[in-house]
Write a structure and sequence with these properties.
Largest sheet: 8 strands, antiparallel
CATH class: Mainly Beta
CATH superfamily: Pleckstrin-homology domain (PH domain)/Phosphotyrosine-binding domain (PTB)
Distance between the termini: 19 Å
Number of domains: 1
């Protein structure tokens, strides 16, 4: 399978399902599940490695409802929208904050424990939509009295 993980020049990729392009043609979409807005779409994730030049990886991200394996609503990360293999996920209850990035109106920051993740949307409108929906969903997850977050997940690791 062809898959693009890094795109240092931010040029276009391909316009086919399963092969990400940047910027995405479509805005993020969402469905509703028990009060949650399950947002999904392509974002770029900034590498946290300080020993190299700044690299961005295109990732499919989506808020997923609970299932048979876990009781929490999760922010999940995949390489593509085909969702062949989940790279990682974090319980919404473990997200400390989601905010717009002051340095770039197209980007926003997700804080999980001691880790800070910078994500890039296709434009400022999309970034604002991700931040608003994620903040609403995080608050809803915190208000949920279902108990502690799933213990078997790496709670401080969101984005691979």
């Amino acid at each position: 399978m062809n898959c693009l993980c890094y795109l240092p020049d931010d040029g276009p990729v391909f316009d086919r399902v399963g092969i990400p392009e940047w910027p995405p043609v479509n805005p993020p979409t969402f469905t509703r599940h028990e009060g949650y807005k399950l947002i999904r779409g392509y974002l770029k994730r900034k590498s946290n490695k300080s020993d190299t030049e700044t690299k961005w990886a295109i990732r499919w991200m989506e808020v997923e409802p609970p299932d048979a394996e876990r009781a929490d609503v999760m922010l999940a990360v995949y390489k593509t929208d085909l969702k062949e293999k989940r790279l990682n996920a974090v319980s919404l209850r473990n997200i400390a904050s989601v905010s717009l990035n002051d340095d770039d109106p197209h980007s926003f920051v997700v804080v999980v424990g001691a880790s800070v993740y910078t994500l890039l949307a296709r434009d400022e409108t999309d970034a604002r939509k991700w931040v608003a929906i994620l903040n609403d969903d995080v608050q809803l997850a915190r208000d949920d009295k279902a108990g502690p977050p799933d213990a078997d997940l790496d709670q401080n690791c969101l984005l691979s």
